[in-house]
UniProtKB/TrEMBL annotation:
Keywords: Glycolysis, Isomerase. Signal peptide: none annotated. GO terms for molecular function: metal ion binding; phosphoglycerate mutase activity. It catalyses: (2R)-2-phosphoglycerate = (2R)-3-phosphoglycerate. Catalyzes the interconversion of 2-phosphoglycerate and 3-phosphoglycerate. Residues 1-397 form the Metalloenzyme domain. PANTHER family: COFACTOR-INDEPENDENT PHOSPHOGLYCERATE MUTASE (PTHR31209), METALLOENZYME DOMAIN-CONTAINING PROTEIN (PTHR31209:SF0). Belongs to the BPG-independent phosphoglycerate mutase family. A-PGAM subfamily. Coiled coil: none annotated. It comes from the Archaea. This is Phosphonopyruvate decarboxylase-related protein. Pathway: Carbohydrate degradation.
Amino acid sequence: MRAIIILLDGLGDRSSEILNNKTPLQYAKTPNLDTLSKKGMCGLLTPYKEGIPLGTEVAHFLLWGYSLHEFPGRGVIEALGENIEIENNAIYLRASLGFVKKDDKGFLVVDRRTKDIDKEEIEKLIKELPTCIDGYEFELFYSFDVHFILKIKERNGWISDKISDSDPFYKNRYVMKVQPIKELCNGEVEYSKAKDTAKALNKYLLNVHKILENHKINKKRRKSEKMPANFLLTKWASRYKKVEDFKERWGISSVILAQSSLFKGLAKFLGMDFIRINSFEEGIDLIPELDYDFIHLHTKDTDEAAHTKNPMNKVKVIEKIDQSIGKLKLREDDLLVITADHSTPSVGGLIHSGESVPIIIFGKNIRIDDVENFNEVSCSKGHLRIKGEELMPLILNYTDRALLYGLRPGKKLRRYIPSDDDVDIL
C-alpha cells in the first residue's frame, strides 16, 4: 500500500477584497480537489503552532515526523543539496550578493539580491575575496543566481554555529551585526566559541564589502547605471548532526519528487531517495510507475505565485494544479494526502504566515465527512484537527502499518509493525 503526499507549498492564504473576501483557494475553480474532498476525510493541519510562520525546510522536517531539536539548520541542508562534502568541524551558511548603501546608521540594504549580474562578473568578484581571517577559513561555493554556500572552519579547534544572521531578510532594513546566541549554546565554552566565530565573520564581511565596493567590476556597473554587488549577506548558520533516517524511523521506503536542491538536501540528510522533476505535471505522470511505500510530490508554484502579492496569480496557479491532479492515476489501495507546508499570504507584508492549512486524506476505509470543497474555510468543518508532527502516525495508521502502543518488538522502540527482517529471531 502506497502513501502519496501531494504537497502544495504555501497553499494556505488570507482572504482579500480583490477576491470578494475569499482566499485564492476559495475563489479558484477546483473541481478535482472538490471531488476528492467529497470522497475523503478533510480538516486543518497546523504545521507547528498556530500563528508561527515556518520556512519550507522546517515545515517538511516536522511533517516527516522529526522534531525541531533534531533539525541541523538550513545551511547544512542546502550544502547537501549542492553536493558539497560536509565536514563535522565546519559550519555552513547561505550567502547572497546584495546592494547596500552606507550612511550614519550602518549599511542600508537597498536590494538583498543584486539584479542583472551574470556568472562571469560574479566569479571575478569572488576571486578577490579573503579566504582566512583570525585563524578561520572561509570558502564560497556558487549555487545559483547571486547565492552561495559559505563554509567556515577554525584551523585549530572546533567552531560554533550558534550565531545570528547578517541578512535582515525584510525590506528597507540594515545589515545586522553577527552575534552569538546564548540561549542556543550549551554552556559558557560554546558561547565563547560562538563569540569568536561571530567576531571573525563580522570582520570577514566588512573586508568583503571593502573589496567589493572598490572592485573594477562594480565600478563598471555603476558607470552603466547598474546595481553593484557590494555586500555578502549571510543567514542560516548550521553544522551537521546525525539523525535517524526515514526508513529506520517509519519502516517504509521513500522518495521525494521535487525541483529544488533544498529537497535534494533534505533527502540526503534523511536517507530518502530523490528524483528531480521539471514540473508538477511531470511528477503527476511519474507517480503510477513508482513502487515506493511513501511518495512525496512537491510543487513550489503556489508559494511563488503568492510572493507576487497578487492573489489572482495564485488563483491561476491553483486552477492549473487542479487540472493536473485530475490526471493522477491511483492504485486501488493507495492512500492520497493533499495538503501544504505553511501559508503564504498573497496580501499583506509577511513572507509566510502562521495560519493552519487545509488537508484531504483519500483512500479505502477512510471516514468520509461532509466537506464538499477543498479550501481553508470548508475544511475547517471536517474531521481532522492535526499538527504537522501527527501526519506520519496517521499515514502509518491508514496504511495498516501502525504498531499497537506499548508493544516492544526488537531492540528499539518503534511506531511501525516490523517485518521478521527488522528484528532478531530467537
